[in-house]
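Consortium newsletter contribution from the modelling node. Members have asked for a concrete example of what our holo predictions look like. Here is one, prepared for the guanosine-5'-monophosphate complex that several groups have been discussing at recent meetings.
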Amino acid sequence: MLRRPLAGLVAAALGRVPSDGMSGPRPVVLSGPSGAGKSTLLKRLLQEHSGIFGFSVSHTTRDPRPGEENGKDYYFVTREVMQQDITAGDFIEHAEFSGNLYGTSKAAVRAVQAMNRICLLDVDLQGVRNIKTTDLRPIFIFVQPPSLDVLEQRLRLRNTETEESLSKRLIAARADMESSKEPGLFDLVIVNDNLDKAYHVLEEALLEEIKKAQGSCHS
Ligand code: ADP
Ligand code: 5GP
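And here is the predicted structure:
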């Protein structure tokens, strides 16, 4: 399902999200309930378009999951350190999610933009709203699970959550699904039922930005 503002109708007909008319590639924000498939989709974009995309590595106070690397998936920090950095003005946005702090540092976005790559951000709904008040002007994409039941199954199969954190994530998911209906909040909504299909909708939507980046990227 696609949901776009009126100004995007022509782009919608082409299966693309609207361009803002600026020359460089725009950043891309993926949001959506925990377990919807954002990281899976982002990782595939990074793999299949090597040198085109760069991930904005967020900071978080949550513990790393097995396989997650500090500096690659997140910067895993203490609340004390993160709070100090927030106070120092080092973050574009930050939010409390499921009992932990998450945030996008200015340095994380700059590092990707310095390479002229398309900056990919994975943030919650509070992050979306906060980024809307900045001059980052990204494309906002909501990744939606087919249903809350499927979401719960996927989170259980991922085997990363305690019952407590699972239940917090499902409560947040319900609210996110409602917020995603807000007119103009997202440029595109992708239902991640079949992974290949969802990936191809995402890739198609970003073709214009990918072409821009191909014309100017540095490896
Ligand atoms: P998020 O980053 O949004 O929290 P993940 O990318 O970690 O979500 O995906 C949650 C889990 O669901 C992972 O175990 C992933 O392999 C699985 N998954 C993602 N997309 C699909 C899909 N279309 N069908 C089935 N499982 C999926
Ligand atoms: P997880 O713990 O599953 O990696 O992430 C939990 C939630 O935090 C997800 O909704 C994810 O999008 C969000 N998130 C990750 N990084 C950031 C960030 O830098 N800022 C904000 N606001 N949310 C983030």
